[in-house]
Design brief:
single chain; 325 residues; alpha/beta; Rossmann fold; five-stranded parallel beta sheet; 35% helix; binds glyoxylic acid
Length: 325
């Protein structure tokens, strides 16, 4: 009989069609996009499967891999992030892992620019004022923000997404791009004329600082009190990577005390962020519900890439995008 696949979410149609039309697998699906599969159900459903197609809300850890058992050969995640996967446990079991970089780079960069401008030019505050009676008259300093022209933009973790963000920001007359990473990335940096600096200099020089790094043990909480305290009072912090790279209590303090001017976050800890969270009380914090890759075309491409990675993995062939474990 055909290899068994469990799909943990009702993913966009392109990927499901790919699995269906391949004739290569039989798959079962958690048939909802609005509610994640309950953990207990997931642990039941993965029993004996050959491959798993998951999204970022599912923790793929030792408990789950043990529940799946020895048939499991492939885990394919419909995401570029992989912090929900225990890579060590996967490697130990010889399980191959697919993910979906590159197809989402444009969508994420576009949203990052939108979030940056919404934060720096205070768009959310402004629409709120306009419709709730705050618009008394045209005022000379009312709702003033910070502009990109002549600014220095800092990128924390220079990958494809950081490059794509810089390419989109350059036409706004940014003066200088700087970045930091574990080591210089000359090839990527030369595409955007970015200078490699220390974390300290990144904090001190950036008018806009965008976190674009993967969440790993090394990057957890690296945006903390120490970083925020070195930033300019006029600077804007943007995060479209993972909430875990930010020490959220430190960020709250930096925003509440005016240590930095504003923050735009597409990612938080936890997700969803509870509606009574203190960050929601701050006017200078714009919070989005993790939508950076959310365009119809990109989500369909992620879906079909995840399906293709899975099918190739099951055939023992190189995946289109495979994580090196
Ligand atoms: C989204 O956050 C992703 O990792 O694809
Ligand atoms: C990293 O995830 C990147 O695509 O830049």
């Amino acid at each position: 009989s055909l290899p068994k696949v469990y799909v943990t979410r009702q993913i966009p149609p392109d990927g499901l069609k790919r699995l269906q039309e391949s004739g290569q697998v039989q798959y079962e699906l958690w048939d909802s996009d609005d509610v994640p599969v309950p953990r207990k159900e997931l642990l039941q459903k993965v029993k004996g499967v050959d491959a798993l197609l998951c999204v970022l809300t599912e923790k793929i850890d030792a408990e789950l891999l043990n529940a799946a058992g020895p048939n499991l050969k492939v885990v394919s995640t419909m995401s570029v992030g992989f912090d929900h996967l225990s890579l060590e446990e996967l490697k130990k079991r010889g399980i191959r892992v697919g993910y979906t970089p590159e197809v989402l780079t444009d969508a994420v960069a576009e949203l990052t620019v939108a979030l940056l401008l919404a934060t720096s030019r205070r768009l959310i505050e402004a629409t709120h004022e306009a419709k709730t009676g705050g618009w008394g008259t045209w005022r000379t300093l009312w709702l003033c923000g910070h502009e990109l022209a002549n600014s220095t933009v800092g990128i924390l973790g220079l990958g494809r997404i950081g490059v794509a963000i810089a390419e989109r920001l350059a036409p706004f007359k940014v003066k200088k791009f700087i970045y930091t990473d574990v080591e210089p990335r000359p090839e990527l940096a030369s595409m955007i004329n970015a200078e490699y600096v220390s974390m300290d200099e990144l904090a001190k020089q950036s008018d806009f600082l965008a976190a674009c790094c993967a969440l790993t043990p090394e990057t957890k909480d690296i945006c903390n009190k120490d970083l925020f305290s070195k930033m300019k009072k006029t600077s804007i912090f943007i995060n479209t990577s993972r909430g875990g790279v930010v020490h959220q209590d430190d960020l709250y303090d930096a925003l509440a005390t005016g240590q930095i001017a504003g923050a735009g976050l597409d990612v938080t800890v936890p997700e969803p962020l509870p509606t009574d969270h203190p960050l929601f009380t701050l006017k200078n914090c714009v919070i989005l519900p993790h939508i950076a890759s959310a365009s119809y075309s990109t989500r369909n491409e992620m879906s079909s890439l995840a399906a293709n990675n899975l099918l190739l993995g099951l055939r023992g062939q190189p995946m289109i995008k495979e994580l090196k474990l």
